Structure formats: structure tokens, C-alpha cells
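Bench notes, afternoon.
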Amino acid sequence: MNTFKKIIAGICIIAIPFLNACKDNDPDPCNYAEETQDELQAVIDASNAYGTNPNSTTCNAYKAAFQDYLNALEDHDNCVPAGQEDEYHQSINQAQAELDALQC
């Protein structure tokens, strides 16, 4: 369950840049916090189900929801505030590694 806690922490770290505005030089500002809200809610719901009833079905549902969320984050990497791109991608890569290590 320690890996599970690390993944939840990774979600929180990844979500931090979403609270900031998009790059000033972006002519079409994006609101990726809003655009990935459904994916994040699916991860939260799946993590609650897995935390309450840890079994292979809830684990696989959690992994699938979290993978969808990471994919959505990568689709919105143009919204990362200037100067935070490396940290953003490092957080996604770390979360991906932790998700890949989770055995169901």
C-alpha cells in the first residue's frame, strides 16, 4: 500500500501547476485544470474504491483511470507555466514509474 500512497502524492504534485495560469505568450489560453477535471475525478473515485476494497478489479480500474489522467496531462503540456516544464515532465515521469510498479 506504500506505492499507492506515493501515487496519490504524485497526483497532488502533478496537480499543482494546474492551479497556475497558462503561459503569457500562449495566444489561446487553456484551462487544463478544467479540461482534465473529469480524468482527475475518475482517479479520485477509483483510488477511493481501491483503498476501500483492495483487489485486482479495483486495482486495475485505478491504474486505468490514473493512466488516462497522465495521458490527459501530457496532452496539455503546452499549458505549463514558463520555467516549470522540466518539473512538470519529471512529475509525470515519476508518477508513471510508480503507476507501472503497482502490481495488481
